[in-house]
Design brief:
Layout: H1 20-23, E1 33-35, H2 38-51, H3 56-67, H4 82-85, H5 102-117, H6 121-143, H7 162-169, H8 184-201, H9 204-225, H10 230-236, H11 244-255, H12 258-266, H13 270-274, H14 289-306, H15 313-328, H16 350-353, H17 360-377, H18 380-392, H19 428-436, E2 445-447, E3 451-454, E4 460-463, E5 468-472, E6 480-485, E7 489-496, E8 506-509, E9 512-513, E10 517-519, E11 522-529, E12 534-538, E13 543-548, E14 551-559, E15 562-567, H20 589-592, E16 603-605, E17 620-622, E18 637-642, E19 651-652, E20 655-658, H21 660-665, H22 668-680, H23 691-696
Parallel strand pairs: 3-7, 16-20
Antiparallel strand pairs: 1-4, 2-3, 4-5, 5-6, 6-12, 7-11, 8-9, 8-12, 10-11, 13-14, 14-15, 14-20, 15-18, 15-19, 17-18
Helix pairs in contact: 3-6, 5-6, 5-8, 5-19, 6-9, 8-9, 8-11, 11-12, 11-14, 14-15, 14-17, 17-18
């Protein structure tokens, strides 16, 4: 397990092994799981190739600039005229709303995950060399502050606000806006997480040096708030600050010092803890969604470090938050929110009116939260959510041709996605996008002391000290999977029985149907397993429909866990601005992707009870209309396919479905016409009352 490649330009000073199990004791080392085929494998390989296309020097520029190293006049220094040679990325690194350095932190995480998950020796070596190139530069940037006594010791960051950090360390809340550093702690969290993940997913000298840097940066953040009162700090936390509390809880586990757990609690936003002590369906409404999700990841990590008490206030808050988001605010792709915010139950029409649909970062973080909660409970609800969001949202957010990433996934009928370009677009969802597709193995299998959980059905191998198996399947095209054990032993095999599975779920061991005990949605079989035992699982699927949250006249179709959607245009036709051009809001379909009128969309007019009969065995969806009001209606039939496979065209995921009588009485078509008139004469707008737009002065044009 502890493989070590020869370092390039670094002395190997220890044999530190992988540390994933220190934070995630129920997860296997990512290198022990190999995704061997299928759409997840294709996305992972493409993402690794894309990561290697990024210019590491430009990602490092914010750190070099803020350390002062780039100001050297020594022409012999590697940092001489660094910024001129390696220009800072202007997209999200200039203007009045800057997030310099955040993608650099994400990139460290992504490269660490890629190193652990890649099983091609030559490519893995390339990844390692890229990491090894970056570490000494980051060390130099951090060490530049070693003599500082004004609170900057240990600092590593890219936001243009050094004086503001010093002021904060002195006990005053500074005006970060004066430096255009809108969410400085958010950016710092990405760097903390990047260093932590180099420790977790790498080994040897890389892990050792990253651990030393991680410790120093954690200590910087402890000093940053040491002179603040709790009241001051809680006010400061009432903005987007990522999951600083999570990384400090992880520091407690990795570094073994209680001060980091105490700091994790101080960095926890108490309003979000207190108001989720009981299940609350209204508290989150109007809040910026991805500001909140990382906080709750931190809460559950604090609870896990404090013990197993089910009444721990942090654990209670995390569970109630997940329940509200997953059960009330999650749409057919498994994502949540509109224009980055949790919307009111009374405003469900926004799901189809607005093209700025669920944000990729939200789903990235909801998957992390789901993993942590599953580890707490082994409840299949979390695994079911994970599977649906992974396939229907995460997998759909990478361009299969260029490896570009998607920020907003539009749910509005006949919309299309906008993709990022390498070394040009530096959105937050580019950062999480880098990570998403190199961690598909992270939750495929987990374990407790004597139980092996099979959480996801994907072709893969597991090679660990106590367990080894091969999973063969063409899931989701195949309605089943086969597990061949390559190590025996006395243990319980727990195979998820998905909530979507149809009648006929069964398990065969060596060809014989086998009884199982259902425990929290897992079929468990306890026996003495032998090498070569074959376990076959029947996973029958049916096609069903789901209604849009708080908008029941719109439905989406699923087969098993997979969202089915339909192209409504030819590939590559009528897609202005499909690739962003480096604009601050270039990721926004609502701003840059022309919308089709809702009145022109394919509809399913008729009885709800008969709607599934409109899909034949070849997944053709009958969208013909025979009512008198359909004179200009031309839709006849659409081909349904997995949403994650549909790119570079307009797509419909939700379909209007109502009786003709109800359609006649509806006002949505008239409202659409009035909205179009307003849009035509609107020069610019800002959505009042939304944290991200008011805070960032973000405009849509």
């Amino acid at each position: 397990m502890k493989k070590l490649f020869a370092a390039v330009g670094l002395a190997l000073i220890s044999l530190t092994g992988f540390a994933q199990s220190e934070i995630y004791p129920q997860h296997f080392d990512l290198e022990e799981i190999n995704i061997t085929a299928g759409p997840l494998k294709e996305a992972q390989d493409l993402n690794i190739r894309t990561l290697l296309e990024y210019d590491a020097d430009r990602l490092l520029t914010p750190f070099v600039r803020q350390s002062g190293l780039g100001a050297t006049t020594d022409k012999a220094s590697r940092y001489y005229q660094w910024e001129q040679k390696h220009p800072n990325h202007a997209n999200w690194g200039s203007g009045d709303f800057r997030l310099d350095g955040h993608v650099g932190g994400h990139y460290l995480t992504a490269m660490a995950l890629a190193y652990a998950s890649c099983h091609d020796t030559a490519t893995r070596q390339q990844i390692l060399e890229r990491i090894q190139y970056m570490i000494p530069i980051l060390e130099d940037c951090q060490n530049a502050w070693d003599a500082n006594t004004a609170g900057m010791y240990g600092f590593l960051g890219g936001q243009p606000c050094n004086d503001a950090w010093t002021e904060l360390a002195g006990g005053q809340i500074p005006n970060f806006w004066a430096t255009h550093s809108a969410v400085p702690l958010y950016c710092e969290h990405k760097i903390l997480a990047g260093l932590r993940d180099l420790v977790l997913y790498c080994d040897g000298d890389v892990a050792d040096r990253a651990k030393a840097m991680f410790r120093k940066l954690c200590d910087f953040h402890l000093g940053l708030i040491a002179k603040l009162t709790d009241q001051q700090l809680q006010g400061f936390l009432d903005t987007e600050h990522g999951g600083v509390n999570e990384t400090l809880a992880d520091a407690y586990r990795l570094l073994g010092d209680e001060k980091y757990l105490a700091a994790a609690k101080r960095y926890s936003h108490n309003t979000m803890v207190d108001n989720m002590q009981t299940y609350n369906r209204s508290f989150l409404t109007g809040k910026h969604a991805n500001t909140q999700v990382p906080k709750y990841i931190g809460f559950i990590r604090i609870a896990q470090e404090e013990g197993t008490s089910t009444t721990n206030r942090y654990r209670v808050a995390a569970k109630n938050f997940w329940k509200d988001v997953a059960e009330n605010r999650t749409v057919c792709i498994g994502g949540n929110s509109m224009y980055e915010h949790f919307i009111s139950e009374n405003d469900g029409v926004q799901y189809v009116n607005v093209a700025d649909g669920p944000e990729s970062c939200n789903s990235n973080n909801m998957l992390k939260l789901s993993e942590d909660l599953f580890d707490d409970t082994h409840d299949s609800r979390y695994a079911d959510f994970y599977e649906g969001t992974m396939y229907n949202h995460m997998l759909s957010t990478i361009d299969p041709e260029t490896g570009g990433y998607v920020y907003f996934t539009p749910l509005r009928p006949q919309s299309y996605r906008i993709y990022s370009k390498v070394n040009q677009d530096m959105w937050c969802c580019v950062g999480t996008g880098m990570e998403n597709h190199v961690k598909y193995g992270h939750f495929t299998y987990t374990h407790t002391d004597n139980t092996l959980f099979v959480n996801l059905f994907t072709p893969s191998t597991l090679d660990a000290d106590d367990y080894a198996l091969t999973q063969e399947t063409q899931f989701p095209d195949e309605q089943g999977t086969k597990l061949t054990l390559r190590k025996g032993g006395n243990f319980t095999l727990a195979i998820r029985k998905p909530s979507w599975v149809a009648e006929g779920y069964a398990i065969l061991v060596n060809g014989a149907k086998t009884d199982y005990v259902l425990d929290h949605g897992y079929a468990t079989i306890e026996r003495s397993w032998k090498k070569g035992d074959v376990v076959e699982v029947a996973l029958p699927m049916t096609i069903r429909y789901e209604t849009c949250p708080n908008l029941p006249d719109y439905i989406a179709f699923k087969r098993g866990p997979i969202l089915l959607a339909a192209r409504t245009s030819e590939v590559g036709v009528d897609l202005p601005h499909e690739y962003a051009l480096g604009e601050r809001m270039g990721h926004s379909p609502d701003s840059y992707a022309p919308k089709k009128p809702l009145a022109s969309m394919p509809m399913l007019i008729g009885e709800r009870s008969e709607v599934l009969q409109r899909i034949d065995q070849d997944l053709n969806l009958d969208v013909k209309r025979t009512d008198d009001g359909a004179a200009n209606y031309t839709w006849q039939s659409l081909q349904l396919a997995p949403y994650y496979s549909l790119h570079h065209s307009r797509v419909s995921v939700y379909f209007y479905q109502a009786t003709y009588e109800k359609y006649q009485q509806s006002t949505w078509a008239q409202a659409e016409a009035e909205q179009k008139k307003l849009d035509d004469r609107t020069i610019d707008r800002i959505n009042m009352g939304l944290q991200q737009e008011e805070a960032g002065a973000v405009t849509y044009s």
